[in-house]
UniProtKB/TrEMBL annotation, chains A, B:
<feature type="active site" description="Charge relay system">
    <location>
        <position position="263"/>
    </location>
</feature>
<dbReference type="Pfam" id="PF00756">
    <property type="entry name" value="Esterase"/>
</dbReference>
<feature type="active site" description="Charge relay system">
    <location>
        <position position="231"/>
    </location>
</feature>
<dbReference type="GO" id="GO:0005829">
    <property type="term" value="C:cytosol"/>
</dbReference>
<protein>
    <recommendedName>
        <fullName>S-formylglutathione hydrolase</fullName>
        <ecNumber>3.1.2.12</ecNumber>
    </recommendedName>
</protein>
<feature type="active site" description="Charge relay system">
    <location>
        <position position="154"/>
    </location>
</feature>
<comment type="function">
    <text>Serine hydrolase involved in the detoxification of formaldehyde.</text>
</comment>
<dbReference type="GO" id="GO:0018738">
    <property type="term" value="F:S-formylglutathione hydrolase activity"/>
</dbReference>
<dbReference type="GO" id="GO:0052689">
    <property type="term" value="F:carboxylic ester hydrolase activity"/>
</dbReference>
<keyword id="KW-0963">Cytoplasm</keyword>
<dbReference type="GO" id="GO:0046294">
    <property type="term" value="P:formaldehyde catabolic process"/>
</dbReference>
<keyword id="KW-0719">Serine esterase</keyword>
<dbReference type="InterPro" id="IPR000801">
    <property type="entry name" value="Esterase-like"/>
</dbReference>
<dbReference type="InterPro" id="IPR014186">
    <property type="entry name" value="S-formylglutathione_hydrol"/>
</dbReference>
<comment type="similarity">
    <text>Belongs to the esterase D family.</text>
</comment>
<dbReference type="InterPro" id="IPR029058">
    <property type="entry name" value="AB_hydrolase_fold"/>
</dbReference>
<keyword id="KW-0378">Hydrolase</keyword>
Length: 287, 287
């Protein structure tokens, strides 16, 4: 992959945290992402499963790798972690940087159809196709190319659910922290959907986990959802029970409420070990 | 403590991460600090030991609490964690913000004697006296006021060693990550010592762990030192073996070199569990 540039590399828990940049064709800009290569891949010359984390609004590729405490568990469970950015960067679209919850940092993991966003704001195709293929090809010596799992937080929880439901089999395990489950009916989701997708409700449904869950027909998925009761977005944006009340024999939901926990990484770090165990029990059984 | 203002509070690992601000008399400015209150203090109505972490140059009170993964262990071991800032802030001293390694963010945990620094740059007295007393009085319902331990990283490792050696009995356990052990002979240390203390080598010695270690006469201390071999400051600033070669029957050193590890928080997070075990085995035996 001659387009992949290594920006930094640091030892952690006997593996390597590496930050790369590359020119994205889908997004038309340079993008950064982080990976963590666990010692199992480095030293035991054994290929490992891949676990993705999609971050929330205002985050970059750095937040989860720095703040979540996840490296310990990625190292222990032998999972190669991939942390993409949350939107295109520096595309110089008018209005891109005007608000914290639209444009830069808020790509919502969808392919925009509205001008002026439709050329660059293609995070759905970027993450699920371009970066997926790049990871499998660039890191072919480290990863099991057919054994990926998916996590996400908030907007990234919405993305994690959508990408998994829309690509049956591509991600074999799924868990989310405080996900936006019904974006069409939430403040943040509706603002972004209107801006990126216009008024077409059929399009909105294509990026709404609570809608997609109804027709999902892939392999059975057991989805772990952690949610804090003191989450400041719970009643305006997240609506986990709209998702978990969907009746689909191919989906089961474990929704855990945690008394007093907010929306931030102090919450995520508390429960991230359980998520790695959830993914490892699925992904590592193929080893 | 009516001067203590709660800026934020977040649940994590069944305890609370709290950020405070207060008016520091020693420093003549408003200062921020973080604490983590473990569940043992909150729910078991039991007082717990206090563990301090002094951060390195350019850090604030946020770095360790956000990046180290330490909360998991503070929760498990039942230690109340205190993370001070690294210098006075906003004192409007000419030159304060001109370089990354002097002035703001680089207080070096000493009491400056040179103008214009001597009025505000009193981090030694701030941490070891003012904030020590504030923690014991403001959090008297949570902490064992006579049972504190001390950690630090880089410049904060230097501070942790100095504060402990200069105040026998005040900190009963001690560990450091990549500490500056002989600041008088290092690039960063000599620049700060010259600026804050002038040319008086007797004064420099009073903040040099490798000098103070020779005359330490307090209770026996077993000091854990972790050091990465790929640390970019190892050969210009840290000099751990200048410290560990000091012969003093009241001090023992466990210096561990870690192949390929750098100076950052990916290094710290890898070994922080061992440090909490080190402190807990000393501090919790009084319970």
């Amino acid at each position: 992959m001659d387009s992949l540039k290594e920006l930094s590399k640091s030892r952690s828990f006997d593996g390597n945290v590496i930050r790369y940049s590359h020119e994205s064709k889908e997004l038309g800009c340079e993008m950064k992402f982080h990976i963590y290569v666990p010692p199992a891949a480095l030293t035991q010359q054994k290929k490992v499963p891949v676990l993705w984390f999609l971050a929330g609004i205002t985050s970059t590729d750095e937040n989860f790798i720095i703040k979540s405490g996840a490296i310990r568990y990625a190292s222990k469970e032998g999972l190669l972690l991939v942390c993409p950015d949350t939107s295109p960067r520096g595309c110089k679209i008018a209005g891109e940087d005007d608000s914290w919850d639209f444009g830069t940092g808020a790509g919502f993991y969808l392919d925009a159809t509205q001008e002026p966003w439709s050329k660059n704001y293609r995070m759905y195709s970027y993450v699920s196709k371009e970066l997926f293929q790049l990871v499998n090809s660039a890191f072919a010596n480290w990863v099991q190319t057919d054994n990926h799992g998916m996590m996400g937080h908030s907007m990234g929880g919405c993305g994690a659910l959508n990408l998994t439901f829309k690509n049956p089999g591509q991600y074999k395990s799924l868990s989310v922290f405080a996900p936006i489950c019904d974006p069409s009916n939430g403040k943040l989701g509706a603002k972004c959907f209107k801006g990126y997708l216009g008024d077409n409700q059929d399009l909105w449904n294509q990026y709404n986990p609570s809608h997609l869950a109804k027709s999902y027909q892939g392999e059975k998925l057991d989805i772990l959802i952690d949610q804090g009761t003191a989450d400041e977005f719970l009643n305006t944006d997240l609506f986990p029970e709209t998702l978990t009340k969907v009746q689909n024999p191919n989906l089961s939901f474990t929704l855990r409420y945690h008394e007093g926990y907010p929306h931030n990484y102090f919450f995520i770090s508390t429960f991230v070990e359980d998520h790695f165990n959830h993914h490892s029990s699925k992904l590592n059984k193929f080893c």
